[in-house]
Amino acid sequence: MVTHAHASGSPGFDSSHSLVSGDVRRHNLELVAGHLVEHGPSSRSQIAEGTGLTRGAVTALTRLLVDAGTIREVEPVSAGGKGRPQTLLELAANDVALVILQLDADEATAVVASLAGDVLFRTADHHGRPMGDPEPVLDVLATVLERAVAAAGGMQRRVVDVTVVVFAPVLGDPPVVFGDSDMGWGEVDVLGGLRKRVPGLPGSVSLHSDAGFAAMAEFDLIPGIRDMVYLKSNSGIGGAIILGGRLRTGAHGLAGGFGHLPMDHLGERCVCGQRGCLVLVAGPDVVLKSAGLGEELETAGLGSALGDLTDRIARGDARAVESFDAAADWVARALHVLSRTLDPQTVVLGGYWSVLADRIERSFAEHAPVSASPGSYLPTIRAGQLENEATLVGAIRESRKRLLHEPLEVRLI
Ligand SMILES: [Zn+2]
Fold first, then answer.
1. Which among 91, 111, 145 is the end of a domain?
2. Which stretch, 182-186, 265-269, 396-400, has highest mean pLDDT?
3. How far apart are the CA of 263 and the centre of ligand 1, in A?
4. Is residue 7 in a domain?
5. Using CA atoms in the order 164, 192, 238, 277, what is the torsion angle rounded to 10 degrees?
6. Contact by Cβ (8 Å): 223, 382
7. Is 5 among the domain residues?
8. What is the Å distance from ligand 1's center to 318 Cα?
9. How many angstroms is it from 325 CA to the middle of ligand 1?
10. What is the rounded distance in angstroms from the CA atom of residue 73 to the CA atom of residue 76?
């Protein structure tokens, strides 16, 4: 998503003024490059129209980007046989690649993408979820990373950015995994472990938690929304809060960790020290076990077992339906707490919950306070459109944005 936050406060301001301040100029370069990322080859007038910049500003900015080698002119095309053919501009950075590395409680995935966001290569390996031991998991993560770097090399592309995304909270500088109950992890230095295994790790490398990326990717698909709560389940339960169009991570970066909302004070003790956390009463392990899929979870992994669960629910299998609906009641209660606290316009349910959102929505309506008439403060409940791909889509978008933040430097990284 391109943010139209012009420093002057109004689009189309005087172009000579736009070149006075370095910050404003960099922002406007980012707008031009961002337009080409979003829309592909475009004429100068299309860029002006799309960004709200004046035609004169676009001419000056594109000249700088062409000189830096970030964009280039392509063969003029005739505008429908009428008028003068228009020269189109496109991103020139065809020799660079972005790598996204995603780790969940089931497998490690690596994706090679172009700066335009196209996925060029994808590979994944199961890690077998060895509880409490990060080393074999980091081995698998390093293996898929090496495969992705080799694939990029085979396509004559340099890897300029590696984004590592994990299913657990990430804190600190340098960033580390803060701990995760689904894997029995305490603090784990994922980036340090990767550097040790993959010497000369290319480009910039960063570590992020997955839910924020997934939430922003879903948010961008809903027109006119400002305030959204994202709640998802695949590896455990996670979430994110978007208020006023911005991801809010809180004072310690832990906002959105809904898996450890203490729901049942008489419930089982959680590794976090509380009782009856949402992940213990509605997480994938408890739902799969009570649906009779505990053995499939152990042998075939989380993805396969969750796929089987959703198939069984679709067929009306009584045990699967009963198991999921019991969890859906807890999720619905958590959503009422979040709705009272944050008053979002919408709630998006992601991961495997996206195909079962109607069951959670039904429970949410059943638990609604009688004072809440339809259309009053209650948010709408939506199924995530990107399902399990939301994190990758969001991570690719953020990586592109980060690189284009300094559009004149893209080729120098
Ligand atoms: Zn907990």
1. 91
2. 265-269
3. 10
4. no
5. 170
6. no
7. no
8. 29
9. 21
10. 8
CB 82 within 8 Å of CB 144? no
- Single residue among 91, 112, 143 that ends a domain in this structure: 91
- Residue 174 preceded by cis peptide, ω within 30: yes
Q: Rounded to 5 degrees, what are φ and ψ at 298?
A: -65, -45
Using CA atoms, how far apart are residues 203 and 159, in angstroms rounded to an integer?
6
CA of 15 to the centre of ligand 1 (A): 54
Does 322 lie in the same domain as 182? Answer: no
One domain, residues 153 and 237? no
In this structure, the answer to whether residues 71 and 117 fall within a common structural domain is no
Q: Report the half-sphere exposure of 380 (CA within 13 A, side-chain side).
A: 9
Distance 180 CA to ligand 1 centre (A): 10
- Residue at 396: amino acid letter: I
Structural domain of 68 = 15-91
CATH code, domain carrying 326: 3.30.420.40
User: What residues does the ion ligand 1 have nearby, CB within 5 Å?
Assistant: 260, 270, 272, 274, 277
pLDDT over threshold 60, residue 13: no
Q: Is residue 251 scored above 80 in pLDDT?
A: yes
Q: Alpha-carbon distance 274 to 143, whole Å? A: 36
Which are the contacts of 53, defined by CB distance < 8 A and separation ≥ 6? 11, 12, 15, 18, 28, 31, 32, 47, 61
pLDDT at 259 over 90: yes
Write out pLDDT tens, residues 207-235. 999 999 999 999 999 999 999 999 999 88
Distance from residue 178's CA to the centre of ligand 1 (Å): 13
Task: Report how far residue 383's alpha carbon sits from residue 26's, in angstroms, rounded to the nearest whole number.
Answer: 37
Q: Domain count of the chain?
A: 3
Determine the distance separating the centroid of ligand 1 and the alpha carbon of 208, expressed in angstroms: 21
DSSP codes joined into one string, 329-371: HHHHHHHHHHHHHH--SEEEEEEGGGGGHHHHHHHHHHTS-TT
Based on the fold, state whether residues 374 and 233 are members of the same structural domain: yes
Residues 38 and 114 grouped into a single domain? no
Which pLDDT band holds residue 15 (cuts at 50, 70, 90)?
Answer: very low
Please tell me the distance between residue 262's alpha carbon and the centre of ligand 1 in angstroms: 7
